[in-house]
Amino acid sequence: MPSPAITLRGVHKRFGEITAVAGLDLDVPAGTCLGLLGPNGAGKSTLIHCTTGLAQPTSGEIRIFGHDALGDYRQARLAVGLSPQELDLDWFLTVRESLDYHAGYFGIPKKERRERAKELLDAFSLTEKADDRTRTLSGGMKRRLVLARALMHRPKLLILDEPTAGVDVELRLELWHYVKQINEEGTTILLTTHYLEEADQLCDRIAFINQGEIVASGTSADLAAKFGSSSLEDAYLALVGRSELSRAHVGADAA
Ligand code: ADP
Ligand code: MG
């Protein structure tokens, strides 16, 4: 059996009095796509920061493809591409430089970097903007660049933290298409989103997170069945205690 892409055991992260991640266990098998869904403040980004070495968990174990992400972080980091929720571009670089420097950190030779950048600029419709400074880009273009950057070193695991929040329909669909393709080619995906349709379309499995804990996980159909509802959306509303918002009720009231 290959090592899972992500293994979390008893991961806690506290910020003073606040417990952001509360003793969480999770396995993401290699080659799968997992959707992490939960309300704002549930602990999704904190969990991702711990998994990618941007934050140190208070306690617990984190493995990336079997490598201890805390002790042997180099190996773990090579395997991961992250598109963070908050755009973290260097505003003084051009689009092309942003991709090139990032790949440089991963020790990719110059020629290969150039070719890979060309490929991703093209895939994310950024070619015309290649020599523009990142600060001059629109919000959607910045998001495209962050996604392309995450992919420069061909990570085996791609982590996308709310990649489609506030983006236009074209980018959302383009991204779905691209994520599906690289997932089919073997890349493992961890995705957080507020769009249930997105999770439904892209993910093999979905985990609901609330107050720093995984409260349910399975396929979209498993989760609907578990919450005694007919759709993933109703299961989600049950999780956050807002079942009265169900579209089924809206329909019933109107009838
Ligand atoms: P999500 O991504 O699910 O919206 P977050 O992981 O951003 O949730 O936040 C989880 C909790 O941790 C929230 O209560 C948030 O306010 C808190 N939190 C996150 N980062 C910090 C930080 N750097 N310092 C203090 N509290 C934080
Ligand atoms: Mg977040």
Overview of the molecule:
The protein is of the alpha/beta class and about 260 residues long. The chain has helices at about 45-50, 75-80, 95-105, 110-125, 140-150, 170-185, 195-200, 220-225, 230-240, 245-255, and strands spanning about 5-15, 20-30, 35, 60-65, 65-70, 80-85, 155-160, 190, 205-210, 215-220. It folds into 3 domains: about 1-80 and about 155-220, Rossmann fold (3-Layer(aba) Sandwich); about 90-155, no CATH class; about 220-255, no CATH class. It is built from 10 helices and 10 strands. Strands 6-7-8-3-9-10 form a 6-stranded mixed β-sheet, sandwiched between helices. The protein is globular. The chain starts with 5 loop residues before the first strand and ends with a helix. The structure holds adenosine-5'-diphosphate and magnesium ion. The site of magnesium ion has 4 residues, from helix 1.
Mean pLDDT: 92
Counting DSSP E segments of at least 2 residues, the number of strands comes to 10
Present as ligands are: adenosine-5'-diphosphate, magnesium ion
Strand content: 15-25%
**Under the CATH scheme, which architecture of the largest domain would be assigned?**
3-Layer(aba) Sandwich
Shape: globular
| Named CATH topology of the largest domain | Rossmann fold
State the end-to-end distance.
53 Å
CATH superfamily of the largest domain: P-loop containing nucleotide triphosphate hydrolases
Main β-sheet description: 6 strands, mixed
Strand order of the largest sheet: 6-7-8-3-9-10
Task: List its traits.
Rossmann fold, binds adenosine-5'-diphosphate, 255 residues, 3 domains, 10 strands
